[in-house]
UniProtKB/TrEMBL annotation:
GO terms for cellular component: cytoplasm. InterPro entries: Alpha/beta_knot_MTases, RlmH-like, tRNA_m1G_MTases_N. It comes from Conchiformibius kuhniae. This is Ribosomal RNA large subunit methyltransferase H. Signal peptide: none annotated.
Length: 156
């Protein structure tokens, strides 16, 4: 199956890119994982947070794969356990979905994107920095794959 992560933010610190690549390379052949960085809108010079979010919304929409099952990452979303995320993954694989996770920028994500998403998912009740969200999401997806393959990486 295809998993795409659209994440607002470029020029992430090395530790973010290293950690995402480390988990992504463990997925194995049944998952084709792509992380696509979305250019953040520069704030200041007459661009406020709302205008910045609107510009990033446009870029996110343009990058959304056709017919994707969209999961918006948000700290007010549903909080699956790792087992429940593995069940979601099993269902998405069975249905042949292209799943697209979207991560907002420093000021968050447009409300319309969250409303229109098929699922709103939180990784924690804490507000996390967007770079950290990429890392945690990729690790949890790898954990979900491990659960489905009965790999000892995940221990209850
Ligand atoms: C720095 S946060 C933005 C916080 C902003 N206050 C908001 O209302 O969204 C950047 C992005 O990271 C993601 N994010 C932050 N904390 C999260 C969490 N606990 N669970 C899931 N996603 C989170 C969301 O996609 C968010 O748009």
């Amino acid at each position: 199956m295809n998993i795409t992560v659209l994440a607002v933010g470029t020029k992430m610190p090395n530790w973010v890119n290293t950690a995402v690549s480390e988990y992504a390379k463990r997925f194995g052949r049944d998952i084709r994982f792509t992380l696509k960085e979305i250019k953040p809108e520069k704030r200041g010079a007459g661009i406020n947070a709302a205008q910045g979010i609107a510009a990033e919304e446009k870029r996110l929409r343009e990058a959304l794969p056709a017919q994707a099952f969209v999961v918006a990452l948000d700290e007010r979303g549903e909080a699956p356990t790792s087992q429940q995320l593995a069940e979601h993954l099993r269902r998405w694989q069975q249905r042949g979905e292209h799943v697209c996770f979207i991560i907002g920028g420093a000021d968050g994500m447009a409300d319309a994107l969250k409303r229109e998403a098929n699922l709103l998912m939180r990784l924690s009740s804490l507000t996390l920095p967007h770079g950290m969200v990429r890392v945690l999401l990729t690790e949890q997806l790898y954990r979900a794959v491990s659960i489905l393959h009965n790999h000892p990486y995940h221990r209850e």
